[in-house]
Write a structure and sequence with these properties.
heterodimer, A: alpha/beta, Rossmann fold, 7-stranded mixed sheet, 5-stranded parallel sheet, 38% helix, B: alpha+beta, 4-stranded antiparallel sheet, two-stranded antiparallel sheet, 5 helices, 21% strand, globular
Chain lengths: 350, 179
C-alpha cells in the first residue's frame, strides 16, 4: 500500500505536533525553537505525493502555517520542479544514491534538471538553494525541501512520524543535557562533543556497573567524556538498540566491557555492522560469550584486550591509544582515497 | 603558415568582440573551441606517429603554454556535450558535466554538498558516504571558474591569454625538430 495525500498530511501534522509537544516538555524554550521542524515554522508546507515514485515536503516561509498537498502521476522530482516540458528531459545535476544526503549553501545549479533519486530507499534534503535553466527561462528557489523515494504507508504512518519527531528531540535533549552537566554553552559543547565522547557499553547488573564505573573513571582521567546508554533519556517509541545507534554514530569510539553476558552481545553486532572503532575489554581475559571471541580477526576496527577491573588504568590507556591510532590511520587512508577531505573538514571532526 | 592562419583566426575573433554581446559570447566560445582544437590536432598527429612526443607529453606542454587550458577544455565539453554554455545573469551558477553523485551506504553515513552563493563547493561525507561532483563549471555572467582555479576569470581575459599561449604551442608543435 502506498501513502495518499491524506496520509502524508496526517504525517506532517503529527510530526510537527510531536516535535512541538515533546520538545516543549523536555527542552528549554530557546532550545526547543532550534529543533529543525520547529525552526521551519511558520511555513507554507506543500506535500507532493506521486503515484509513480516518491513523496516530498517543501517548506516556504509564511506568516501562518498552512499545509497543501499536490498529487500527480509524474515522479516526485517532476512534481516539485514543474516547469517547461523540456525541463524533465534534461539530465539531472545530481544523482542521489542512498539516504541522509543533502544539498545547501545558497548556491545555484545551472543548465540541468536539479536532481533525481536513484532508488526507493533514497532521500534527499535541500536547504536554501537555487536551480535554473537559462535556455528554458526556468528558475526556482527552494527554501527547505525533503524528498523521499519511499511512499509506502509504513514510511508515512503515524508511528513513523512520532518516531522521527522523537529522534529529532532525543538528539537535542542528549546534547543539551550533557552541556548542562558540564556547565558549558550548547555551542561550545557541540564543538568539542565528537572529539571527546566515548560510548561505554556493558552489563548493568551489580558487578557490571562496578566495571563500567571503573572504565568511565579511567576514561575521564584521559580527558574523554564517557557516555553510558543509561545517560540517554528514554522515549516510548525508542528501543535500546536505536539509542545505541543514535549515540554511537556521533561518538569518537566505543568501549565495550565484554566480561559478562548482557545486551551488549547484540550491540557488538551493531558495532561490527557499522564499522565503528570499537575496543572489547574482558576482565582477566574471560569473554562474555564465544560469540564475541575473534571479532578482531575479521575487522581492523575492532580490538580485543584483557584488563584488570581493579586496576584498569594501564589497559584503558592502551585501549584509548589503540583507538586514537586507528582513527588517525583511517583518516589518512580515507584522505588518500578522497583527496577533497584534506581541504574539507569532515562533519564530526573537531 | 599554420601559425599565421591560427593567428589570423584569433585576430578576427578579437576584432569581432565587443560589437554585440550575444555575438561576442558566441565568438568567445568559438575561440575556446579553437584553443582546445590545437591540442586535439597535435594529439591526433601524435597518435598517428607523425610527432616525436606522446599524447601525455603534449598535454603537459600544452598546459605550460596555455594558462587557462583546463578551463577551455571544461567549457568546451559543457558546451558541446551538455546543454550548451550560454550567458547567464545569475550570480555564480554551477554546472556539472555528468550528474554529480551523493552516495550513502548504511546507518550513520551521510553525504552533503554545499555550494555557497559565491560558487565555492564543499563536499562532506561521513562514514560510508561519498560525494562526487563531475567536472563542475562555475559561471557568473561572463566570468568562469573550475575547481582547480583560485579565482574567477573573465572569458575575454582567459581567451586572450589562451590564444597567445596556443599560438606559442602551435609554433612549438610545428617546429621541424618536433616532427
Amino acid at each position: 500500500m502506498n501513502a495518499d495525500q491524506n496520509t502524508v498530511r496526517q504525517y506532517i501534522e503529527l510530526l510537527h505536533g510531536t516535535v512541538r509537544s515533546v520538545g516543549d516538555d523536555v527542552l528549554a524554550p530557546e532550545q526547543a525553537s532550534q529543533l529543525l521542524h520547529n525552526s521551519l515554522l511558520p511555513a507554507a508546507i506543500t506535500a507532493y505525493v506521486s503515484t509513480q515514485f516518491g513523496v516530498a515536503l517543501e517548506y516556504a516561509p509564511a506568516q501562518k502555517t498552512t499545509i497543501q498537498t499536490v498529487c500527480g502521476s509524474a515522479r516526485v522530482e517532476d512534481l516539485v520542479f514543474s516547469g517547461p516540458r523540456a525541463l524533465r528531459k534534461l539530465d539531472p545535476m545530481l544523482l542521489v544514491k542512498g539516504d541522509n544526503s543533502s544539498l545547501g549553501g545558497g548556491g545555484t545549479f545551472s543548465g540541468a534538471f536539479p536532481f533525481r533519486l536513484a532508488a526507493v530507499n533514497c532521500d534527499f534534503t535541500v536547504d536554501n538553494f537555487n536551480f535554473e535553466v537559462v535556455a528554458l527561462g526556468w528558475k526556482r528557489h527552494v527554501h527547505f525541501l525533503e524528498v523521499y523515494g519511499d511512499r509506502s504507508t509504513g514510511r508515512w504512518s503515524a508511528a513513523s512520524a512520532t518516531a522521527r519527531a522523537k529522534d529529532e528531540v532525543l538528539a537535542a535533549v542528549y546534547i543539551a543535557r550533557q552541556a548542562s552537566h558540564r556547565g558549558e554553552t550548547l555551542s561550545d559543547y557541540v564543538n568539542s562533543f565528537r572529539k571527546r565522547s566515548v560510548l561505554v557499553l556493558g552489563a548493568y547488573n551489580a558487578d557490571g556497573q562496578v566495571r563500567l564505573a571503573a572504565i568511565t573513571t579511567e576514561l575521564k582521567t584521559l580527558n574523554y567524556e564517557p557516555v553510558l546508554v543509561a545517560d540517554i533519556p528514554d522515549f516510548e517509541h525508542y528501543d535500546l538498540s536505536q539509542k545505541v545507534v543514535a549515540i554511537a554514530a556521533v561518538c569518537r569510539f566505543i568501549v565495550i566491557d565484554d566480561s559478562a553476558p548482557s545486551g551488549h552481545l547484540s550491540e557488538v553486532e551493531v558495532c561490527k555492522l557499522n564499522r565503528w572503532v570499537t575496543v572489547l575489554l574482558r576482565a582477566q581475559g574471560v569473554a562474555a560469550s564465544s560469540m564475541t571471541l575473534g571479532a578482531s580477526i575479521s575487522s581492523n576496527v575492532i580490538h580485543e584486550m584483557s584488563y584488570n577491573p581493579i586496576e584498569p588504568a594501564r589497559s584503558i590507556a592502551a585501549a584509548a591509544e589503540w583507538a586514537e591510532q586507528r582513527l588517525t590511520e583511517l583518516k589518512k587512508q580515507l584522505q588518500a582515497i578522497y583527496p577533497f577531505r584534506a581541504t574539507t573538514r569532515p562533519t564530526g571532526e573537531a | 603558415m599554420y601559425t599565421d592562419k591560427f593567428a589570423s583566426h584569433m585576430n578576427r575573433l578579437e576584432m569581432a568582440a565587443s560589437t554585440d554581446a550575444a555575438l561576442d559570447f558566441g565568438l568567445q566560445l568559438m575561440g575556446v573551441y579553437s584553443t582546445v582544437s590545437v591540442l586535439e590536432v597535435a594529439e591526433c598527429l601524435s597518435g598517428k606517429g607523425m610527432m616525436r612526443y606522446s599524447v601525455d607529453e603534449l598535454s603537459i606542454r600544452y598546459q605550460a603554454f596555455v594558462p587557462f587550458g583546463n578551463l577551455a577544455y571544461v567549457i568546451r565539453i559543457h558546451d558541446f556535450h551538455r546543454q550548451g554554455v550560454s550567458f547567464s545573469n545569475s550570480e555564480n551558477g554551477v554546472r556539472m558535466y555528468g550528474p554529480g553523485t551523493l552516495t550513502v551506504r548504511g546507518p550513520g553515513s551521510s553525504a552533503s554538498l554545499v555550494v555557497s552563493p559565491e560558487g565555492a563547493i564543499a563536499k562532506t561525507a561521513k562514514r560510508n558516504g561519498h560525494v562526487k561532483v563531475d567536472r563542475p563549471l562555475l559561471q557568473s555572467g561572463w566570468r568562469f571558474r573550475t575547481e582547480d582555479m583560485a579565482d574567477w576569470v573573465g572569458i575575454h581575459d582567459a581567451n586572450k591569454s589562451n590564444w597567445s599561449g596556443a599560438r606559442s604551442f602551435v609554433d612549438w608543435v610545428m617546429s621541424p625538430r618536433n616532427a
